């Protein structure tokens, strides 16, 4: 088997090494989104609520990784859905909360029908 590996092209050897590293990272949890998270989902929603001017009916929070350092961020969606159509909204705002520090990095008002 070692002879077969030594006979491979350098490109194939590199592919095998990368595949092995990815398998090790996946097995150890190194690539999971929840690594290095100090702020819980519930805390992120509470922080996001402080930055909107309405009382949401629904809230959802998803942990994502952003940027070059793959920093953990809670993407919190706060909404008031239209009656009879839960996929359309009267108000929808997303708030990005740093999962390490709890700082708000971005607020995006996606929809606000009250403003016209």
Question: What are its keywords?
Answer:
116 residues, Nuclear Transport Factor 2, Chain: A, 4-stranded antiparallel β-sheet
Give an account of the 3D structure.
The chain has 2 domains: 1-31, no CATH class; 41-115, Nuclear Transport Factor 2, Chain: A, CATH 3.10.450. It contains 3 helices and 4 strands, in the order H-H-H-E-E-E-E. The protein has helices spanning 2-7, 10-28, 41-49, and strands spanning 58-66, 71-82, 85-98, 104-112. It has a 4-stranded antiparallel sheet, covered by helices on one side. It is elongated, with a radius of gyration of 21 Å. The termini are far apart.
Residue windows where pLDDT falls under 50 for at least 5 positions: none
Task: Characterize the quaternary organization of these chains.
Answer: single chain
CATH topology of the largest domain: Nuclear Transport Factor 2, Chain: A
The order of strands across the largest sheet is 1-2-3-4
How many domains is the backbone divided into? Answer: 2
The rounded Rg comes to 21 Å
Q: What portion of residues belong to β-strands? A: 35-45%
Name the shape in a single word.
Answer: elongated
The major β-sheet equals:
4 strands, antiparallel
For the record, the CATH architecture of the largest domain stands as Roll
Judged by helices, strands and strand pairing, the structural class is: alpha+beta
Count of individual helical segments: 3
Report, as a whole number of angstroms, the end-to-end distance: 69 Å
Q: What average pLDDT do the residues reach?
A: 84
Number of strands: 4
Give the proportion of residues in helices: 25-40%
Q: Would you list the SSEs in sequence order as H and E? A: HHHEEEE
CATH class category of the largest domain: Alpha Beta
């Amino acid at each position: 088997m070692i002879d077969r590996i030594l006979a491979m092209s350098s490109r194939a050897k590199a592919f095998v090494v990368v595949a092995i590293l990815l398998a090790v990272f996946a097995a150890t949890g190194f690539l999971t989104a929840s690594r290095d998270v100090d702020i819980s989902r519930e805390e992120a929603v509470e922080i996001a609520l402080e930055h909107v001017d309405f009382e949401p009916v629904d809230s959802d929070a998803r942990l994502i990784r952003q940027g070059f350092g793959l920093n953990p961020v809670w993407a919190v969606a706060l909404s008031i859905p239209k009656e009879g159509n839960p996929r359309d909204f009267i108000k929808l705002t997303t708030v990005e909360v740093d999962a390490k520090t709890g700082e708000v990095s971005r607020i995006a008002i996606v929809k606000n029908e009250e403003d016209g």
